[in-house]
Design brief:
Elements lengths: L2 E10 L7 H8 L9 H12 L8 E10 L4 E6 L9 E3 L2 E5 L2 H12 L4 E4 L6 H11 L22 E4 H5 L11 H8 L14 H6 L3 H25 L4
Parallel strand pairs: 1-6, 3-5, 6-7
Antiparallel strand pairs: 1-2, 2-3, 4-5
Helix pairs in contact: 6-8
Length: 236
């Protein structure tokens, strides 16, 4: 079976909607004195960071790409929008709820034994697992069994390319996906209408398909980097 490339996009909840105890939990990390510009800046930063936790954020797009067939599906949220399933080139875009996205993801994942992400061990996969549990959806594959590729389960190899190309952190200043694409002559996914830091605003503005297209660009760039790694850097 071929490898499955995985990428997600997330947004944070609205801080003002939290209960008082949850607000206090986050504000205890704010060190500046209340009422000062520094305090307001730190609170704003805490709000921006809500997106990084599956406890205070949600998945708005899950993209999967069959590395051998070079065909992708991007499941994406589009609340209130009159959008239907569409296809552009090698990508099928399917508007679904978060719960439906996760069910579809795990349903397809059972057909693969090798999974590829960029920094997925510390973000995408834990996020997917925890959001799945919140929706009472069983995890279909154990993609967190072991960080080191040679010690992972045969039926669920998770190739986190960030770990692989940086030799598990041995490379100094390894940079992000854009920098690796630049170095290897791969078209960067960071050019377009939406960037990772802008997903929250784009979602609030109803630019759901733009987010899905950005997710697809990440998928194809990751596939190219995976191909490069497999041909020139993989040793086992």
């Amino acid at each position: 079976m071929g490898a499955l490339i995985i990428d997600i996009e997330t947004v944070g909840e609205t801080f003002a909607d939290f209960d008082d105890r949850t607000k206090a939990e986050f504000l205890k990390y704010v060190k500046a004195k209340p009422g000062t510009p520094e305090y307001e800046a730190e609170v704003a930063e805490a709000e921006r960071n809500l997106v990084f936790s599956p406890l205070t954020g949600q998945i708005v797009a899950i993209g999967v790409l069959d590395a051998d067939k070079n065909k992708a599906v991007v499941y994406f949220q589009a609340p209130g929008a009159d959008l239907t399933e569409t296809k552009e080139d090698n990508v099928t875009y399917k508007p679904l709820t978060e719960e439906q996205m996760l069910e579809s993801f795990w349903g397809g994942a059972t057909r693969y034994s090798e999974f590829v992400t960029w920094n997925g061990r510390t973000f995408d996969i834990p996020y997917i697992n925890i959001r799945s549990a919140i929706h009472h959806i069983p995890i279909g594959k154990d993609l967190m069994s072991n960080r080191y590729l040679g010690s992972q389960r045969y039926e669920a190899k998770h190739i986190d390319l960030f770990d692989q190309v940086s030799y598990y952190g041995a490379v100094r200043r390894p940079g992000g996906l854009h920098m690796w694409c630049r170095a290897f002559g791969i078209e960067t996914p960071k050019d377009g209408n939406v960037a990772a830091s802008e997903v929250g605003k784009a979602f609030a503005d109803g630019k759901y398909l733009d987010i899905a297209r950005y997710n697809a660009r990440d998928l194809f760039a990751t596939r190219e980097l995976y191909t490069y790694w497999r041909q020139y850097l993989r040793t086992g």
